[in-house]
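Q: Given only this backbone (199 positions), what sequence would you predict?
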């Protein structure tokens, strides 16, 4: 799928995403991991700002997304939170930041949409300070064989409809990247991955 088509798909989903801010199946998992974000925080594919409720008041947040509509929704939501927020409309697969720019890098449900997810993780390695942390909540291939079969079967359709892969092996993508995996937790039949990593 070309990039402009993908951006349009996410533009159309902005309002739907925004409704998930204070409820939804993933809320407790977001809370579990993203409250650990500290210092200068980069959140890639920030979407409508679903992780805002979990950030401490003293962080400095840089939010990145290629969708104008998502960023517009996030900008409105940011007014309700005390931390400083700067939002940038760029594609994480092409954007450039200086090395060692951030104390924490946050990614949630974004590895499914990248052409080269391993390259994105290698960028995290460069952008994150050596003593920093990378926090991820991603969806991918399940541990449950019938569910995994369904994910594989539906992947082409879901990519076309919502713009993301359903069957990526998040664990393997991280192992093949330059990141150091600290901890991985799996939930919802192994479909949901919580990842703590560092450069």
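A: Predicted residues:
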């Amino acid at each position: 799928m070309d990039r402009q088509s993908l951006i349009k798909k996410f533009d159309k989903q902005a309002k739907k995403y925004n409704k998930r801010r204070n409820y939804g199946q993933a809320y407790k998992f977001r809370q579990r991991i993203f409250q650990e974000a500290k210092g200068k925080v980069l959140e890639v594919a920030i979407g409508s700002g679903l992780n805002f409720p979990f950030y401490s008041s003293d962080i400095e947040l840089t939010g990145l997304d290629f969708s104008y509509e998502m960023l517009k929704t996030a900008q409105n939501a940011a007014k309700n939170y005390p931390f400083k927020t700067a939002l940038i409309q760029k594609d994480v697969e092409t954007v450039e930041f200086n090395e060692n720019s951030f104390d924490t890098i946050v990614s949630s449900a974004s590895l499914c949409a990248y052409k080269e997810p391993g390259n994105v993780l290698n960028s995290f390695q460069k952008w994150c300070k050596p003593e920093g942390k990378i926090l991820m909540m991603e969806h991918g291939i399940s541990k449950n064989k019938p569910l995994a079969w369904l994910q594989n079967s539906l992947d082409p359709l879901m990519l076309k409809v919502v713009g993301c892969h359903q069957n990526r092996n998040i664990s393997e993508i991280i192992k093949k990247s330059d990141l150091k995996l600290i901890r991985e937790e799996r939930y919802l039949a192994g479909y949901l991955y919580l990842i703590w990593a560092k450069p």
